[in-house]
Amino acid sequence: MKMLLKEFPFKIKTVQTDNGREFTYKYQSSEVKSPFEIELNKLGINHKLIPPRTPWHNGKVERSHRNDQRYFYDWETFKNIEELNTKLKGHLEWSNNKTMRTLEYKSPMQLLSEKLELKSIH
């Protein structure tokens, strides 16, 4: 979460996740919060959970994971965490600058740049 906040050029108001234990203890305890939930609380960020057993609500994330698997993890090997992070950085650079039909043949970075430009004009 800290890395995400550092990299994003705008304020994050809400984070949506599935119900995995890395994100919530909702189904284990009604009183105990996960470290992720505690951190979001400290940062004043809302946490929205998708309904259980509905991965289609998380479709963009699922597609992203599938592409990362297909174009990165299936092809790369890593000796240690540092090597993984270095190679992953290169993959993310490629992925974020790749044009996509769903973005009208713009890359995620191009679209973000346009949105930030429009925001600064207003």
TrEMBL record:
<dbReference type="InterPro" id="IPR001584">
    <property type="entry name" value="Integrase_cat-core"/>
</dbReference>
<dbReference type="InterPro" id="IPR036397">
    <property type="entry name" value="RNaseH_sf"/>
</dbReference>
<protein>
    <submittedName>
        <fullName>Transposase family protein</fullName>
    </submittedName>
</protein>
<dbReference type="InterPro" id="IPR012337">
    <property type="entry name" value="RNaseH-like_sf"/>
</dbReference>
<dbReference type="GO" id="GO:0003676">
    <property type="term" value="F:nucleic acid binding"/>
</dbReference>
<dbReference type="Pfam" id="PF13683">
    <property type="entry name" value="rve_3"/>
</dbReference>
<dbReference type="GO" id="GO:0015074">
    <property type="term" value="P:DNA integration"/>
</dbReference>
<feature type="domain" description="Integrase catalytic">
    <location>
        <begin position="1"/>
        <end position="116"/>
    </location>
</feature>
